[in-house]
# Entry
Amino acid sequence: MTTSSNQPAPLDRRRQLELYQRAVKTLPGGTDSNFRAWGEDTIYLDRGRGGRVWDIDGNEFVDLRMGYGPVILGHGDDRVDDYVNERMRRGVSFSLTTEDEVRAMELVCELTGWVDMARMTVSGTEATMHLMRLARAFTGRNKIVKFEGQYHGVHDYALISVSPNNMADLGDQDNPVRLAWGRGIPDAVADTIIPARFNNIERLRRLFERQGHEIAAVIVEPVLGNAQGILPQEGFHKELRALTQEFGILLIFDEVKTGFRFARGGAAEYFGITPDLASFAKAMGNGYPAAAFGGRRDIMSQLPEKVSHGGTYAGNRVAAAAAVKTLEIIRDTDALETVHATGRRMQDGLREVINEARLPFNFTGHPSMFGIMFTEKVATEYRDWADTDHALYDEVAVGMHRRGAMPEPDSREPWFVCEAHAADDSVDRAVTAFEESLKAALDGRARTHAADPGARGEAERAG
Ligand SMILES: Cc1ncc(COP(=O)(O)O)c(C=O)c1O
# Structure
């Protein structure tokens, strides 16, 4: 391991800056998603291959974002791309049904083992939206419980109490408020969502006793995949399953990040839980826009007569073919075992570095999708994120970009591991970039502290 504290030369970003200046004239923020709008630091990529990406200035990175999770095998995987190419030559969009769609949903049922019926959508957002509708229709109740810090997409029902920086915005611990993310969400919609605190079964029981007759479903990311992968405490999911059954409330697992990643059968298999409904996306298509929702036959059978679902591109050829091939690979090869072992190897390297630096920390999530929390306390809910040294994490992540590895520069987004990371020196490169960046950040803090003992430095970011 290197102990160099040298600052690397700043990345050449001239072409990206030019493209940003051009893009902001047409695309708000210069991108197609608020989550990618980083001002002049907005990244414009040229290509990806395996576990690597290259920006338009030619800088190469070990990709630890993997498109926020979907790319489970690697960028440009020939097995998937060749199959998709072959299928798409037959035409991509008919708004009629192809056998690829049937095959894709058969594979979802087969791999999960508990999903009886499923349908495709184009995004995870659509999948969770339709699940909420199905649950409301099935129970005749209107309210949905969601947990603070959990992200279920960008429809109005999902954008409640997601990821404020200031925990006070979530309301009192005993009385969480419905915090809409941004303007434009009608109060009438927000009022159907009841925010709850993760890992707190007692509070949920009290809520169900009071309002259970109004609650159609609880939607839960099995780990807080959008808040550093904060884990359920021992027994939480089993108790949640039992409690929802006791009150006739449906349990929706949002497996958009965990599905076909934690295990072939996703987090439901990993935690040994059978939910009533689940959403899938991301890893099911290795980056192609494939998503699905599914679950119990009696609930799903409300389609097509009683509940609305459609979409011009639902089940389109490209997505369906990508899902077929990706799910076959996940079923038939040891791709997931490779992903998990590679994630553990990465964690081993990081653990050594952080222990050497004598910093309190813990890993959250799963080796295939993990967060690094600089804190002694094990976080159990979103509010705990505020007590971690996430400023240090962010600084390290930004420093890693300069050193050829690209995690999200926001601690809430986990590192994602793909199968292709095992095929080259991606793990070593990522760990070395982390080590050098951590050292530079800590040196910067030490210097700032020496100059002003009251200040907490962020020297590298500022530099
Ligand atoms: C758990 C979870 N649910 C839903 C979504 C929304 O999926 P999409 O971005 O495909 O709309 C995401 C996206 O990151 C997610 O992480």
Remarks:
- Residues 14-75+334-462 form a domain with the Aspartate Aminotransferase, domain 1 fold (CATH 3.90.1150.10).
- Residues 68, 123-125, 128, 151-153, 221, 225-226, 254, 256-257, 281, 291 surround pyridoxal-5'-phosphate (CB under 6 Å).
- The chain has a mean pLDDT of 95.
